[in-house]
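Continuing the batch. This is chain 6 of the set; chains 1 through 5 are on the previous pages. Same settings as before, nothing changed between runs. Recording input and output for traceability.
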Amino acid sequence: MSTAAALLAERLGLEDDELLAVLDVGPLELVGGALEHKPELPLLLALTEDVAQSGALPRWLRAKGRHGRPIELLLARDFGAFETAVDDLRERGFVIGG
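Output for chain 6:
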């Protein structure tokens, strides 16, 4: 697995199957680290970098908030909605509920 993919998985608390779905890759691509063609990886790392410092991202990712559960947005590959949810986290902090 590439260092960037491992960092994203650790930062967000993603299981292997979730990481595969988010990046839309197969297990061999992930294990082989051949992810240079996946723009989602560096974008998601950049998007979550500043909010990762709190250590709350794995819990936030699975909590229901104003935009639903962020994990569901990622798994649906709705990166625009995920970005909106991250912006909301940045502005409001970790708030559970609608």
